[in-house]
Amino acid sequence: MYISHLSLLNFRNYEHLELDLKPGMVLFQGDNGQGKSNLLEAIYMLAVAKSPRASSDRELVKRQLVDEETYSRVAAIVERGIEHGGGPLKLQMDFSSTPIPTEDEDDNLGSIGGISVQKYIRINGVPRRASTLVGQLNAVMFSAEDLELVYGPPSVRRRYMDILISQLDQNYLRALQRYQRVITQRNSLLKAIREGRSAEGELAFWDEQLVSEGEYIIGQRRACIQQLSEMAGPIQRGLSGNGESMEIIYQPNVSLGNGDDEGGIAESMHRSLLERRRRELAQGVTVTGPHRDDLIMLLDGMDVGAYASRGQSRTVVLAMKLAEAGYLKERRGQEPILLLDDVLSELDVRRREHVLDQASQYQQSFLTTAEVDSIDAAHLSGMNRFAVKSGHAEPMGSTTDVID
Predict the structure, then answer these.
(1) Which terminus of the chain faces fewer neighbouring Cβ atoms within 10 Å, N or C?
(2) Whole-angstrom distance between the N-terminal and C-terminal Cα of the chain?
(3) Cβ of 132: how many Cβ atoms within 10 Å?
(4) Domain CATH number, residue 251
(5) In the chain, what's the furthest Cα-to-Cα distance?
(6) Structural domain span for residue 235
(7) pLDDT (tens digit, 9 = 90+) per residue, 34-93?
(8) What is the number of structural domains in the chain?
(9) What is the torsion angle, in degrees rounded to the nearest 10, for the CA atoms of residue 145, residue 150, residue 151 and residue 153?
(10) Burial level of 209, CB count in 10 A (0-12/13-18/19+)?
């Protein structure tokens, strides 16, 4: 699997871009703030249907155009092997933005808050739901923001698990969507019970719904993280070179005991619901279930977030991301696309070469850098290079031509 063409229209700082791409390592080089990361963001959006950086789709529209009706697009042609459907796959995400009228004539509609954005998905030209896009293109992205997997709140780590598993399992994605609706309804009921507007007995139905969806989510998360941990350990040792032992531990919100199957998980969830009933009624919110899960990363048995240096944390997250790529490859039978955003800047020479060796093993990988000198000549000579400046990406000549 690889991307043969990327098309952007009014996306971030790109007015219009048509980029032909080849398999292998693709390097976007240029000064900071020129749009390198935006290219990787666009590709990742086509894999998971959401931006890894933006809190709202409004942020994706080219800023100079937000005071008028605007059409934005991110599209790519993905080449697949015969065993995976054969023929090119065209993925397209359109954004239609319209200014929101206000009574105050002095109100600045040019601000991001002054537009309404609708998102539309097309797969091979056919309109589809956003959830259908997830998993069509498998991608793994690493950026500086991923250190939040160590230092951020549990919600960041839950999102990580959800994105990874959803790329492989549409049933998981649908269960997650249904589960969120159950939580919303159950929380409303808990508040109504607390205020005396509903009876406690009404919780029985929503308890069953919570367990029905939650047990599948927990089971898939546990299986995924267990395998991810097994794969990340050797990668981390290769990166660090010092024999440190790395583990990724799934921490479900319920005590599973020996609940190795979904039946055991369901029993554990029922038990936790009963044990926490008074607390939930007092607080008016659901405190039991996978929406309160977490995971923890350990180095030699110690919590990375509490005891590791920033450099160690970066290496651990990078190992987890490379393990994620291996996990996707093993589960799907085809290689994901690697997106490595400024991954080399804080690594020493040995770690940089190890990462580049790993990236070169995939059918296609994308890297960004503002420091081309950080890449050794052997790897650089085999890269497809683009110079990125002010929302433009231009193919570069050979390494020899550039050096001369």
Answers:
(1) C
(2) 34
(3) 15
(4) 1.20.1050.90
(5) 79
(6) 147-333
(7) 999 999 999 999 999 999 888 887 888 876 655 556 789 999 999 987 665 668 999 999
(8) 1
(9) 90
(10) middle
